Amino acid sequence: MTAPLIASTPPGDGQLNAMLRARLRCTVALKRVFVWYIELIVQLPSEITASMLFATALIVTLVVGDFASTFFYHVPQHLWFTLHLRTHHDRRRSYFDHAVLSTNPAVLLDGLLGAIPYLVVAALVARLSWPGALAGLVLGQLHVWWRHTTQLRWLTPGWARRFLRPLAIVLPEDHDGHHRNPDTEFGDIFRFYDAPARAILAWLAPTSRRARKAGRRTTRRVPAGA
Ligand SMILES: [Zn+2]
Ligand SMILES: [Zn+2]
To answer: Helix or strand or coil: residue 190?
Structure first.
């Protein structure tokens, strides 16, 4: 018989299932890494501490900001809303125009809403290092401009491609794929968000605007009284 899943049950007595044990191990490992990091920072000379905090704030702003923007704005927009599709994916105009040049209020609103998660994360990590958080936001904005340059026929040089591929950074050629087929290449800055984003899109597809519209079309085609 399966033992009850009680979180307070002490580990190791065989009562917790594999998932709970794995989660517990993960939490303990994370706590250890955090304590190790704080102890390391406290022992280091202040200049090194400042650089580590700078790098941490910068990386967290980009990685967590992209996570939040992808899963709390970009994916929901593709599923249920129209603003992002009407603006960023408007095929009547060049996407470089939408992303870099346009001052159209709807285009700017889409950009702002997509940027809010980065701003929130930056505000939180500014306590660690405000220059690091600010540098993260500046790099994020530079990446917005750069990832839309394929329409200017810019090509990522081979050396940059070799350097950035192992870091899973979105290249302009990758983001061009999102504009050619909006169901692919999610993640603004990091490609590792693409697979989970697509999985969520597939999972929630029955609830999407597209599915509702398709349902309405099918209903309309069915003759009355059938
Ligand atoms: Zn884009
Ligand atoms: Zn999109």
So the answer is: strand
